[in-house]
Design goal:
The complex is a heterodimer.
Chain A: E1 2-6, H1 17-21, E2 29-32, H2 37-43, E3 46-48, H3 50-53, E4 61-65, H4 71-77, E5 81-86, H5 95-108, E6 111-114, H6 117-124, E7 130-132, E8 142-146, E9 149-153, H7 155-168, H8 175-196, H9 201-214, H10 219-232, H11 239-253, H12 256-266, H13 270-285, H14 288-298, H15 302-310, H16 317-327, H17 331-343, E10 350-352, E11 358-360, E12 370-371, E13 378-380, E14 383-384, H18 385-395, H19 399-411, H20 417-441
Parallel strand pairs in A: 1-2, 1-4, 2-3, 4-5, 5-6, 6-7
Antiparallel strand pairs in A: 8-9, 10-11, 12-13, 13-14
Helix pairs in contact in A: 7-8, 8-9, 9-10, 10-11, 11-12, 11-14, 12-13, 12-14, 13-14, 14-15, 15-16, 16-17, 18-19
Chain B: E1 15-21, H1 29-37, E2 42-47, H2 54-59, E3 64-69, H3 78-90, E4 96-99, E5 104-106, H4 108-118, E6 125-132, E7 139-141, E8 153-158, E9 186-195, H5 202-215, H6 224-229, E10 237-239
Parallel strand pairs in B: 1-2, 1-4, 2-3, 6-9
Antiparallel strand pairs in B: 4-8, 5-9, 6-8, 7-10
Classes of the chains: A alpha/beta, B alpha/beta.
Chain lengths: ~450, ~250
Amino acid sequence: MNYLILSRVSWEEYPYKRLLDLLPERADICFAGGMTPEQQACSGIRPVALTELNTWDGGSFTLLVSSPYWLPDVLALQPAYTVALLEPCPEGENEIMWEKYSALLAARADLVGTVSERLYLEQNLCRPRVVYLSGDYPLSCGLLRRGERLFFLSDYEEVWTRALTGLWQPACSGAGDWLVIQRRLRADFYVSMCGKMPHQPTVHYLAATYLYLLGDEAAERYLAKSFELMLLHDYTDCLHSHYRFFSAIEAKKGNLALAVAQYEITAFTEEERSTAVQMRRWLDSGDSGLLQAELYRVNEDVAEAIRVLENLSCPEAQPLLLQNYIASFQWEKALQLQRLAALSSSEAGVIPLPGGAVLQGGGMPPASTALLAGTEIPSYGGVQLPVIEGTMHLLHGRRHAAIRSFLRVAGAGGEARTLFAEMADLEEAAGRLKGGADDEQG
Amino acid sequence: MSKDKPLRKTSGNRLTAMMQVRNESGRYLEQVLEELSGFVDDIVIVDDASTDDTARLCHSFAKVTKLVTLEGPLFHREWELRQTLWELAVSTDPDWLLSVDADEFYEEEAKREMRRLIDQDAYDSVAFRLYDFWGGTTHYREDEHWNIHTKHTRTLVRYLPQFYYFTPQMNHHVPRLPLSYAVLPAFFAELRVKHYGWALPPEALRQKYERYMELDPEGKWGSLEQYRSILDDNPNLVEWQERREHERPE
């Protein structure tokens, strides 16, 4: 397999060098940016000028991308596979923009890796293929020979190589199992920490989170302990983070009536209350798939919600799926779903919406959740459709189409100025990234 | 939760008072039960193995719908006592619970407002200002160690059947209601509760001090300084002012 590295920093500062040594089936490995002859000789990696990328045939490459501002290039290169190496927002970057485009990069990626446990957990709630590139497991988990060199692999390094192999050999690598094993190792680590730190609510919460991700019923016990410790420490701002989490655990166990009752206790805003009413309707009508998905969504487990909804054939699943695609920044899938629905809109039908409303006229509505107050701009979970369209146009290099989409927001009384500012900021950030790489080449 | 009963009702809420008592004969219990009978729907009581006629007194009030008399006292295991009372109270399927001590009196305004406080769906608990009356029923104490009225104390809570109720397993100074209510929205009412637990003559105060020191000689469950302050010769006392009808709190 060929690899192309799209880095945020110069080769000298590149933090994933050891992971590159462990890449499976290494063939041609390239670094977008400058490298000295010594660096090339040492690493066995060759530099690629940024100008070359314009004509690069990405189809036979796996991209290893560690800055979200490479995303337009990722889309243009059309690689065989994309691996997003997510990092917390570096100092000096606009955090909102970094988080947004990191989420879009992760959504576009076939595999996500990160050394940040916060990001690892967040991504686990958004998609299935996520690797934690750090760990606390003390034993070596594998051995790898590269020429004269012998590598003893830690747990996450073994998972990393297996997960990459799994991209092009999904049937035989057992990569999915390795991702589960990694969750189990994290769960075991935090369970052991609970023994050492019995009064620490956070370690109990993390143990509960990993056990929940594994579908282990012990999650409830650790969450309960964490909740109690929060109360004893007088950390009372935990109704959603802790108590509501019980409802996701019960949903996973299939105890839907209890899960709904638990969610209802946490529902205070108008939106939450209408969600609770809809949940109770689904409970009464036996629509367990929709109900389960919604319980996952309100607990921010979008990955699990999508998994359930993608297996449902009822029309009510479509608006919910769209909502979850948007929440997890799978915006291309969202637009695709939207287009498919528009195509089938001639087939009459009625779609119930979250909150109890129905939409007449068949297919999926232009917007499933709401129209922006006083406008005809469709909005999904607070994100306006033209913003989604415009962002995707921008990332695909269709600048004028992006501007047209953003102007639709402005034309309807919305605020386009921030969108144009973001557009400029993104172009500037991408320019800075490449400028840095160019400097290295120079 | 049953299908036809919403979790949070804005009308028709049933209010159950819950209290634990022990040898209350000749103190304030009768007066407290009389007052409670005027504004709650039910009263549930755990009698912590009284040896006087406390149980008979409780039974004489029609609104006392549940009374459990323990065979042996749980005073030294307060957590168990609180838990027993809680389980007895929730067994009546209440909408709201008012935790009352046998020497606490809600001021008139609080009693009048009680229905408005519970017939709403915005918050799940109500906290009041408790005043420690000292030496009699005309003055409350206010100093470094006696200032509970400067904060709010949660005594009125909505019962939510599937909620996770947690009460720390302590022998003394156990919170009167599960700690879990702290995460739910609360209303802090500028309404007052008179606590007559210290409205005692000097000799009775000394006996109370000695009992505290016997139970907690090292100040494990409370402050030794506060225990000692019970014997202060000249505590700072403030005269209680009843509110007139038009002086409604915000």
